[in-house]
Amino acid sequence: MSKDYTDATLDIDDSGIALFTMNRPDVLNALTDGMKTDFVRMLDTVQGNDDVKALIIAGNGRAFCAGGNVKSMGNPERAGPVNGRSRLLKMHEWLERLYNLDCPVIAAVDGIAYGGGFALALQADFILASERAKFCSVFGRIGLVPDMAVLYTLPRAVGMQKAKELMYTARSITAAEADAMGLLYAIHGSENLLPASRVLAGRLAQGSKAAIGITKRIANRSFQSDYTTMAELEADAQSIVFTTDFHKEAVRRFQSKETPLYNWDAMGKTAD
Questions:
Q1: In sequence order, which residues have a C-beta less than 8 Å from that of residue 146 and are 6 or more positions away?
Q2: By C-alpha distance, which of 239, 228, 204, 41 is closest to 128?
Q3: What backbone torsions phi and psi does residue 65 show, to the nearest 5 degrees?
Q4: 165-181 as b/e, with b when 16 or more CB fall inside 10 Å?
Q5: pLDDT (tens digit per residue) in 106-119
Q6: Mind listing the pLDDT tens digit for each residue in 161-182?
Q7: Sheet holding 63-65, edge to edge
Q8: How many helices (H) and strands (E) does the chain have?
Q9: Would you report the helix, strand and coil content of the chain in percent, each value rounded to 5?
């Protein structure tokens, strides 16, 4: 599955869980050109793929992702206004695809998630972190504006005042502080982080991919849309998912008093 990847790996198991692992521990999984290309390759594989029910993004080694490759930032060609702007806009082409991916996305953050690494985690629907995870909007330390959509995602995750504080100060926060801010879904020990992520992904994978995917795209627009727009999107979406085989089978089972297709509470009892 990962033969075409240079800086990452992709594995899709029989239950439909895709695991994308950033695999450049020698540079703390920094966003090299190869890593960015691998993200595009991964999205080309999983987006619109009915065999993929959920995606987990992880990092190999002691970092989730250290962010941009600072060593390359001194190159005047890359740093010039025209090239720099073009490069960032090109990155948003795949970042927005990741943000609106048609399945649940889980970021399994073990170690540092700085700058662009923090941005990647914020693209996920759920962030699970290890106890040693650290997050930082590090851009201000080198006189830069937060990029990779942090200006969009962070205020929505923690509120405007706290987001500004994190962006202005460029200070790092622990997993415990990130959790207190509402950034995290859960904290686990490093050894349990990936298994816990797989459990969450596996449970989400039992739901209707169509319903979850459409719900995600609409919810992602909720903070910049008015009531009427959201109502219209809701009506359009509901008219579509009413026709899905999942919905029809779920209704049949309910009416026949059979085991539901998707029951989170029952899955929780089984897991306990």
A1: 119, 137, 139, 140, 154, 167
A2: 204
A3: -165, 130
A4: ebbeebebbebeebbeb
A5: 999 999 999 999 99
A6: 999 999 999 999 999 999 999 9
A7: 63-65, 112-114, 134-136, 172-174
A8: 12, 10
A9: 55, 15, 30
Residues of the chain with CATH 3.90.226.10: 8-204
209-271 maps to CATH 1.10.12.10: yes
Residues contacting residue 261 through CB under 8 Å, at least 6 positions apart: 206, 246, 249, 250, 253
User: Does residue 60 carry a pLDDT above 50?
Assistant: yes
Task: Domain 8-204: give its CATH code.
Answer: 3.90.226.10
Angle in degrees, 0-180, between the axes of helices 150-158 and 160-169, rounded to the nearest 10: 130
Using an 8 Å Cβ cutoff, are 154 and 146 in contact?
yes
Which residues in the chain are classed under CATH 1.10.12.10? 209-271
In this prediction, residue 7 carries a pLDDT of: 97
Q: Strand 126-130 relative to strand 186-188: parallel, antiparallel, unpaired?
A: parallel
